[in-house]
Amino acid sequence: MTRILRINRDRLWASLTELKQIGAYDDEATGLRGVRRLALTDADAEARRRCVGWMLEAGLEVRIDRIGNVYGTRPGRDRSLPCVLMGSHIDTVATGGAFDGTLGVLGGIEVMRTLNDAGAETLRDIEVGFFTEEEGVRFGTDMLGSAVTAGRIPLDHALKLTDQDGKTVLDELVRIAFDGDAHERRPIPHAYIECHIEQGPILAGAGVDIGIVEGVQSISWQRLIIRGEAAHAGTTPIASRHDAGLVAASVVVMARQMCDSGEFGQLRATVGNFDLGVGQTNVVPHQATLTIDLRSPADDLMTAAEQHLAAYVDELAARHGVDVTWERMAKTAVVLFDPSIQDLLAATAEDLGLPSVRVMSGAGHDAQEIAAICPAAMVFVAGENGGVSHTPREYSSPEACGNGVDVLANAILRLADQA
Ligand SMILES: [Zn+2]
Hints:
Elements: H1 9-19, E1 24-26, E2 33-35, H2 42-57, E3 61-64, E4 70-74, E5 84-88, H3 102-118, E6 126-130, H4 144-150, H5 155-160, H6 169-175, E7 191-197, H7 202-206, E8 210-216, E9 218-227, E10 231-232, H8 244-261, E11 268-275, E12 283-284, E13 287-296, H9 299-320, E14 323-332, E15 335-336, H10 339-351, E16 356-361, H11 366-370, E17 376-381, H12 398-416
Parallel strand pairs: 5-6, 5-7, 7-17, 8-16
Antiparallel strand pairs: 1-2, 3-4, 4-6, 8-15, 8-17, 9-13, 9-14, 10-12, 11-13
Helix pairs in contact: 1-3, 1-12, 3-12, 8-9, 10-12
The structure holds zinc ion (ZN).
């Protein structure tokens, strides 16, 4: 008979409630209290210290690496074996909620407390970690800490990235005293599991709390800078304008049409930044900057979508006599998670009496980076309000969170006893 652990749901919820006070702000749009904890800000630093405090209270050995990722280790019987790793992130977007990333980290810490309460010994070390700048909002590259750990982004490059005030990742790591000395290319784990809110409506629609994640779709972030020519709004004939704003707006519309066309499969396109500089009512805009976020569960269709959009922009540029510059901000291919860990998660959920479904992730996660160095998978937890996230309306019930972390705990326990 397999040993079954149950985490302490009240204690998990208390930790989630405590951490959401750090970086809390009043959100005007929703009238709710949200969380604004951008990476390596004072709020992030305070949340990091709180998590480190909890790790130490749970008796974990804490280490910080050179990109500021933090790990807490619970020793196993054979310390020469690769550990089993849980983790996620505690940074948020500017209009964040209390669960995105945080559930996986505080859930992991709760797993450690539960193991302690049960007096459980494991063969392998178990670690819980949180990764720097997962959201990419401040320094422009998402999954930064885990990508450095996986070797996709060199440490030197990452440390030199700047925020909009010109502060570097290194400056900020030093300032908040999270410039650790552990090597960022950490010892390779035996396996990695990330518990995370779904951030979508599929689980709630299926009436289940638990999703076993099959993989993460491809993500492409680009910045498009369009340079036209300022001109008088009253005297410049329509035909002789070089209207950067018009070109930018046309790109927004095309991005949506590509999604609606069905030609690019399950493509999702979003223009989340749209900037005409210091606009003037009576002047044709001379410059426009926008970002384009594309997502697809198929790499070939992603390539087709990027090519289609680039050709359209070329054609617009020629027609309106504007210059365009593309900047690649980020690009990740489709990542498929380890099938045996997916199966182990599904079996664990079943043993706990929790129905689950298999899903693809629409959002990027640290797990897709860590999947490059060891077998990895994710547990999704259902959200309410259609699974909205990156807004203070983000909410998963105590029961759903508890169920997800129960799956995490028992899967980790099984992996930690694998010879
Ligand atoms: Zn997240």
